[in-house]
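Milestone 3.1: sequence recovery, worked example.
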């Protein structure tokens, strides 16, 4: 398995999130690759004749120095945590780099201000959302899968499949099932892959679907779910399950799209 962590120099160095990413790498017994970008691309600098060329070049130089500094900090944290590492840094937009790099990674952890759900839409790899309060301790007790039969949820489950056997309990939460067979279908699929699971079918009633899922996810090591059943822009404007989970859920979330 190949594990990446996405880091932007647009914010302060995410040391605590990186330490947690190292904890995840140790649990999975894999090295960690840091992908560091400035979230600004060379193509977006006007380079006409005149003094502005010098200003642009100075800005590029500053960005590259910052990337180098973050790379050194990344290496230092990984060494302190005894995690094998390498890193890739580029003065570019992460939105442009990740679609190119994602085929070579199974999972990517995102750090502030990069949104895991957005990165899941852009690449082929699943992404894991961590924040400063996330805890990776053993990472083997309970995994919750939020299942609705969508393509996004299916891709999330497939991405999680290599790590599902490590959990002592895998609970599948089906809220407002779209068909009577939906809970049984996902249970059969997981069983065929050698994953024993408990299927929990819920009716949301007056509660939001995200609230029902979050109630189950609170005592889990990992939540697996699809990202954005509708447009991410519409979800930001009007709300939605993905937006609610990514902003309010404290459990690490593995997103697929």
């Amino acid at each position: 398995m190949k594990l990446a962590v996405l880091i932007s120099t647009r914010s302060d160095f995410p040391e605590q999130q990186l330490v947690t990413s190292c904890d995840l790498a140790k649990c999975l017994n894999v090295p960690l690759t840091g992908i560091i970008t400035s979230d600004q691309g060379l193509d977006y600098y006007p380079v006409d004749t005149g003094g502005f060329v010098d200003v642009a070049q100075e800005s590029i130089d500053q960005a590259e120095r910052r990337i180098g500094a973050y790379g050194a900090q990344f290496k230092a944290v990984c060494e302190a945590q005894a995690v094998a590492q390498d890193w890739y840094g580029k003065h570019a937009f992460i939105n442009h780099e990740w679609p190119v790099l994602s085929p070579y990674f199974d999972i990517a952890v995102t750090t502030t201000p990069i949104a895991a759900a957005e990165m899941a839409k852009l690449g082929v790899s699943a992404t894991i959302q961590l924040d400063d309060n996330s805890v990776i301790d053993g990472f083997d007790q309970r995994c919750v899968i939020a299942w609705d039969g969508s393509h996004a949820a299916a891709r999330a489950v497939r991405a999680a499949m290599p790590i599902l056997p490590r959990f002592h309990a895998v609970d599948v939460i089906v809220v407002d099932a779209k068909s009577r067979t939906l809970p049984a279908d996902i249970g059969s699929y997981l069983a065929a892959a050698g994953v024993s699971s408990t299927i929990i079918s819920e009716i949301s009633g007056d509660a939001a679907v995200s609230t029902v899922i979050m109630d189950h996810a609170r005592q889990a090591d990992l939540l697996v779910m699809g990202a954005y059943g509708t447009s991410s822009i519409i979800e930001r404007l009007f709300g939605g399950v993905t937006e609610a989970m990514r902003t309010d859920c404290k459990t690490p979330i593995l997103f697929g799209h």
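Residues 231-239 have pLDDT under 50 and may be disordered. The two ends are 19 Å apart (CA to CA).
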